[in-house]
Design a protein that fits this description.
This protein has helices spanning about 10-35, 45-65, 80-95, 100-115, 115-120. Residues about 130-138 have low confidence and may be disordered. It has five helices and no strands. By secondary structure, it is an all-alpha fold.
Length: about 140
């Protein structure tokens, strides 16, 4: 799908970078969803452990995104959509977690300002993910 829409990079180096970023972003998404689904009685300890584990990763993403519009610089890739999803889930889970990461906050703003995404977010079809199945825990 990424290649069909010219979002898979133009060079082998870009394709490799996209693969790495996709795996890193997927790890973020999966771990945020696991935290959201854990029982409330252990929610705070799980959250603290998760944030301690992912703080260095967030700093890596922050450093990586310096002076870049998107993950490939000026060019959008499919990795951007997965990274944005992970960061958005993280903001949903803990609204303050990105406060000290200006590059990541700006990156999320740029993603949300993409015309097609902006249109979708404002439409009736948009449902704020990750959805109720991941926020209701016992």
């Amino acid at each position: 799908m990424g290649q069909k829409h010219k979002l898979a990079g133009k060079t082998e180096k870009e394709s490799l970078l996209i693969d790495i970023l996709t795996h890193e972003a997927h790890d973020l998404v999966i771990n945020v969803l696991k935290c959201m689904k854990c029982p409330k009685v252990i929610q705070e300890s799980v959250k603290a452990e998760f944030l301690a584990k992912f703080e260095p990763k967030l700093q890596e993403f922050e450093d990586f995104m310096k002076e870049k519009q998107f993950t490939l610089g000026e060019d959008l890739s499919y990795a951007d959509f997965l990274l944005y999803t992970g960061l958005d889930y993280l903001r949903y889970y803990d609204a303050q977690v990105l406060e000290k990461y200006d590059e990541l906050k700006n990156y999320c703003d740029r993603m949300e300002a993409l015309p097609e995404l902006d249109k979708y977010f404002k439409s009736d079809k948009f449902v704020r993910a990750p959805g109720p199945m991941f926020v209701k825990s016992t």
